[in-house]
Amino acid sequence: MMKIVLLLALLTVSESDGSSVVGQTGEDVTLSCKYNIKYYGALYICWARGVIPASGCSDQLLSTDGHNVKEETRVSSRYQLLGRLEDGDVSMTILNVSETDAGLYGCRVHIPGWLNDDKHHFDLVVEKAPQTTTSTTLTRETTTDQTASTTGQLTSTERLLTSSSSSITAEVSSSVSVVLVLVLVGLVSLVTAAVLIIALRRRRLGKLSGLQVHGSVRFRSPESGLQLQSRESAVENIYQIDDGGDGGEYEYCP
């Protein structure tokens, strides 16, 4: 009878009461489990879901030999032993907790001896994470700021384009004005040259006509004088023949 009482006492001591752990969806939750590695040395530990049985771990999640995790016993990569195994910290961390992860978990430390295993139970409560209204507001404000900055950039770009187009228009108009002035100057120069050429031609024609008139008079006047002189000399000769000689008769040939 005394043996049964001692056995129940040992079981009561070796099994710790279950502690409640609260986590939120999307977060990482750690279930703490440690042992005195300096006293016992490296021990075999297993994690299970539900109540730890009298021996072993039913519905096992993962296990370790005290130095390394036995990967063949890991059910999911979401279950990690992130503590220092060399210090006896075999706490299990559940990554990215969801509502389906809520429930009872157990850690079993295999201490050498009869019915000496250390058991720890944890009741995991998972709550919904609050809505991130602040982040949504910040996102909207950021989007608004980005839109405003983009609009400002577009406005400045439009101003630059407008100023560039106006300067280009001014340059084109000034170039057109210069071209028109040059064309007008060229036309005036051509008209002036044409007028001068016509005036010079008229002067030359006038001089040529005057020379022709004077030349004809000069040419005709000596000829007429010679004809008059020849006629006069011929008449005088006729008269001289008629008056001369001994009164001989001569034939007159008209």
TrEMBL record:
PROSITE patterns: IG_LIKE (PS50835). One of its GO terms (molecular function) is phosphatidylserine binding. It is a single-pass type I membrane protein. GO terms for cellular component: membrane. Residues 1-16 form the signal peptide. Gene3D superfamilies: Immunoglobulins. One of its GO terms (biological process) is cytoskeletal rearrangement involved in phagocytosis, engulfment. PANTHER family: T-CELL IMMUNOGLOBULIN AND MUCIN DOMAIN-CONTAINING PROTEIN 4. This is Ig-like domain-containing protein. It comes from Zoarces viviparus (Viviparous eelpout).
